[in-house]
Amino acid sequence: MEQKIFCCLLVYKKFKPHLVMVFGQLGYTLLYFITEASFNHGMSPYVYVTYRHVVAGFVMLPFAYFLEKNVRPKLTFSLFMEFFVLAVLGVSLTLNMYFVSFKYTSPTFIASMVNCIASLTFIIAVALRFEVLDLKNPHGISKVLGTLISLAGVMTMTLYKGPVMSNFWRPLFTIQPTIASSVNEKSQFKGSLLIVLCCVTWSLCFIMQASTLKRYPAQLSLTTWMCFIGAAQSAIFTVIAEHNNPSAWIIGLNIDLWSTIYGGIVVSGLLTYTQLWCTEKKGPVFVTMFNPLSTIFVAILAYSVLGEKLYLGSMIGALIVIMGLYLLLWGKEGDREVDFKTKGKLQCYSEDQECKI
Question: Which residues are listed as membrane-spanning (predicted)?
């Protein structure tokens, strides 16, 4: 019995980052529907981004102050400027582009395009030498193939619809679409450009987080700083964007408030912290490769609960994405084994002992 418990604990410890990222994507899935309902209710996306990170900052502040009091490095001007850039890339600029693109494209298109972050992060990480790429090693080939296959799955979901899968029961809830049924070609190009730029800045944010965490290994504190700085940046942008609509800042006891609280506490607070934790443990590519799961969860929930249309192309693309995810994660685990063996050998040599690994 004790041996089984010990084995379970070992398995849990090994796959803890994987479980954390899966539950994180479930959290993002719920956010998608809550914010969609809130924007239909009339809430400004700019105001939402600002309020959401104000809530997250105040929620995370006491945890960051007390739990990381002894491990938090001294704040310097260079670190603060890094926090400022991280807030631009991960909060104010990226999220505002993300939600504005809702006006010009479809949510399905956005959810599919966000999955390109994994491929972009891998490419940028290799270019900046944050990621090891050895094409002579099967694990290195697996990472490249996994990235390409995952991207192919995303393109399949985006470009190929196929026949509609019939729904066998009536939807439990109904959410009206956030965009107009017809959008001109120029607006579609504008929305597509915004979401592509959003994916690029998000990828840069993940890579920069990995670099910053090496010199500031305090995830709670970094999350808090990003929330407050990002909220201030977004507030300035909101004042400019909503200068003719001051009433946009007012929200009542309705879906707008609940979406702000959920987005602030769960997404901008808890999920941002867990992403930073996983980035430090596994690297930025590992974190971004779980983004396709959110698209799959959204499709399943929209089909089974909300009665939205599910196309055959989405199902095929989802399967292709999962294949790519598996290949890239297998390649990442190979890097982890190599690092472990290298560290073990160095430790044995330093202690002048014989070691067999």
Answer: 18-34, 46-67, 79-102, 108-128, 140-160, 191-210, 222-241, 247-273, 285-305, 311-331
